[in-house]
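Quick illustration for those who missed Monday's session on complexes.
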Amino acid sequence: NNVIRVALVGNPNAGKTSIFNLASGAHEHVGNYSGVTVDSKEGTLRHNGYKFILTDLPGTYSLSAYSPEELYVRSYIFEEKPDVIVNVVSASALERNLYLTTELIELEKPMVVALNMYDELEKSGRLFKHQTLSEMLNVPIVPTVGKKGFGIPELLENVISIYESGNNSHNVKVPYGRVLEKSIGFMCRDLLSNGFSTLGMPKRYVGIKLLEGDKEVENAIREHDKGKELLARRNKEREYIERLLKEDPESAFTNARYGFIAGALKETLSEKTKFEDKTT
Ligand code: GDP
Ligand code: MG
Ligand code: K
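Prediction with magnesium ion bound:
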């Protein structure tokens, strides 16, 4: 049937609710998320023969298991299994917003990035080759202005294409460097050889989360027959990482993600503005 379930995921104040309201004709409160209740809202719309069921999820900076929002969003994605994730990214805080994007890529779900606040980017005069970033991440990136509705039809078109193609950006891996990649490799091999079902999550993702010390993933693995052995092995890998990189594994992963984003932005975002370009 022609129903596409779409989850809006992004940092607080990236513009998720604005896009949600404009697309679905809803009237949800736009502004600062109070954080009192962790909840989601559903709305529907029709476009090009499809019925879209949109879910506006709480804002989150990452997908670790630390805050109720983070846990909520992660469980929502794995339990409710939306067909397509729309990652709403604020173009006025790219580095911080794209951190979440790197985590979402690892979930290996069909995804489209809404490059929101595009008006702010244009006003700033900075040049951003989002097409190049889109190729680097193997994820469509669509400029939007959530406040005004600019780019929303294009966003929906991209959601339809990704849904119809079934592309879940398997081909792109955030590179973590030699030491972390070696440990990830060991964890994936152990997960595979012991026949762990990985909670519907990709093996690489589970390996990374175990190395980071994610409690929720850890507890799920402990339930397995060979869970204790795997966690003992994991502890060894964590020690190895700490000894070689001289930082705790979690920071090592976080820093590697930021490094990857910084590198990608160095190639695609020019700090020099087009206004300056014209005067030279
Ligand atoms: P959410 O926290 O992700 O749901 O973000 P909201 O939709 O509540 O938006 C946060 C603020 O940004 C609100 O004041 C919106 O009016 C504003 N906003 C949303 N989209 C845009 C946009 O594309 N450009 C600009 N300039 N402001 C926007
Ligand atoms: Mg909101
Ligand atoms: K908000």
